[in-house]
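Most newcomers find our protein records easier to grasp once they have seen one. The structure tokens are whole numbers drawn from a learned vocabulary of backbone shapes. The record below serves as our worked example for the rest of this section.
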Amino acid sequence: MKSYILTSLLAVAVSAIPMPAPAPPGIPSTANAKTQLSSLTVKAAYDDGNYNRDLFPHWNTVSGACNTRETVLKRDGTNVVTNSACASTSGTWYSPFDGATWTAASDVDIDHMVPLKNAWISGANTWTSAKRTQFANDLNTPQLWAVTDNVNQAKSDKSPDAWKPPLTSFYCTYAKSWVAVKYSYALSITSAEKSALTSMLNTC
């Protein structure tokens, strides 16, 4: 009887452990991320005062009724059920930034790894609208992540020298992903940003 109880308790404990969500594509190895980081242009951010979120059209239709947000929710969730409008009606989402697990899509935001304003002040202000649209809806790099809504809001448009995810164990993946996106779009970084990213990559 005792053995059965212990086995049952162990099964419950294991099932309660949140399983990490599938990672977005394009996360480089640590070595490649360090190489990419070293090749990025380091200069002061330039804010021309003209940034507007609407300059980065986002949550475009991807397929059928599904837009980018719903596509990421389905990609990163577990047992996600959607209705005819592609809205997620049930599922489970693990937020890698803070380790929280959610069962309501309304508790989950889609984070832009490199925030739209940060992109603007590091080179995107010279892009075409088409390129900004691509950046805001990019499913091919580690740019879009399903995370806890208030954690995403706390991050806002901050770079890694001003904000880091609550889970220190995620620093490595966070830094590799940030570097990969900046490298893919030839965006610049500040010296403080590079220092923070270097420290985070050293946790890998």
Observations:
- The chain is about 40% helix and 15% strand.
- Residues 2-16 form the longest helix (15 residues).
